[in-house]
Design brief:
2 domains; single chain; about 300 residues
């Protein structure tokens, strides 16, 4: 009896020690992040204005803005989401619900997990050879969007599979018992119930994509651009244009890199302001994802 009490006491001691170490580690990370954010806001906040958002880059730091950068980031991310989300979700559903469990699917799963950890520059080199030289897409928004789609595709697939795995088997059994087909079960039960996990993976992937620099530089992003891509909306039927897909571009991380590389203090302030905007865009994306996930979970009754 005494031996059992002693073991319980030792276990509680190690649990408490682990809790303290984990708490202190988290606190150190949060404090460092807070310090960096405060420093960023102190440097960049004075430059935030309507003119900063509506002006093109310039060799004069007081007149420089991020208009072409944030528009380019938005359009590239639009292509990325349009390519990666349908393909990634469909692949995850197929691997989890339809694919036979054999050595072929095991190899596919291993490769997907490995691709999630491949450095982003490798995707840039792949896209340079495939999209720029082989398919002749050129150094365009389409190439950049597809490159980032390849980058986040493994993350979307893995998040989709994890979301589906979290659904109890009784949901499927009840659906089949009522005469539903495989696709009806997936459409009306599997996908809605796993949407929270899928959205989490999608937003994490897009948040990574919006801050990537290496693959975008590799496929030809411009460091200085004083014009906007063609408008996706036109005044003539069918009122939608895809010419912007083949236009040159720049994105927020490239613009920040350009300013940081300059010695003038004013350009450093511009880079800090652009960092605040980029961080705000990321937080907004995550906030929207949390809201959508909350709405989906609220509608679902297990």
């Amino acid at each position: 009896m005494e031996d059992i009490k002693q073991r319980i006491k030792i276990s509680k001691y190690w649990n408490s020690l682990f809790w303290i170490i984990g708490f202190l580690s988290t606190l150190v990370g949060l404090v460092l992040l807070l310090v960096l954010m405060i420093d960023l806001f102190m440097d960049g906040a004075p430059r935030l204005s309507y003119k900063f958002f509506s002006s093109f880059p310039s060799r004069f730091p007081e007149e420089a803005g991020i208009l072409s950068a944030w528009v380019g980031s938005f359009l590239v991310l639009l292509v990325t989401a349009g390519a990666a989300i349908p393909l990634g979700v469909a692949a995850g559903i197929y691997l989890e619900e339809y694919a036979r469990k054999n050595w072929v699917t095991d190899i596919i799963e291993i490769n997907i997990a490995n691709l999630a950890g491949v450095p982003s520059i490798v995707y840039g080199l792949l896209a340079l050879g495939l999209f720029v030289y082989l398919l002749k897409f050129g150094e365009t928004i389409l190439t950049a969007g597809l490159t980032l789609a390849l980058l986040i595709l493994p993350m979307v697939i893995m998040a989709t599979r994890e979301g589906i795995r979290a659904i109890p088997g009784s949901i499927r059994e009840a659906s089949y018992a009522l005469g539903a087909t495989k696709w009806q079960t997936v459409q009306w039960h599997i996908i809605p119930y796993s949407m929270g996990g899928i959205l989490t993976g999608v937003i994490i992937g897009l948040s990574r994509a919006i801050g990537e620099t290496a693959p975008i530089i590799t496929v030809g992003a411009l460091t200085f651009i004083a014009f906007l891509p063609a408008s996706p909306v036109t005044s003539e039927f069918p009122f939608i244009s895809f010419k912007w897909l083949m236009d040159p571009f720049t994105v927020m991380p490239i613009q920040m890199f350009n300013w940081v590389s300059r010695p003038q203090k004013a350009f450093q302030m511009n880079a800090a302001a652009a960092g605040i905007v980029l961080m705000g865009m990321t937080l907004l994306m995550n906030g929207v994802a949390i809201y959508i996930r909350y709405k989906f979970r609220k509608k679902i009754r297990w």
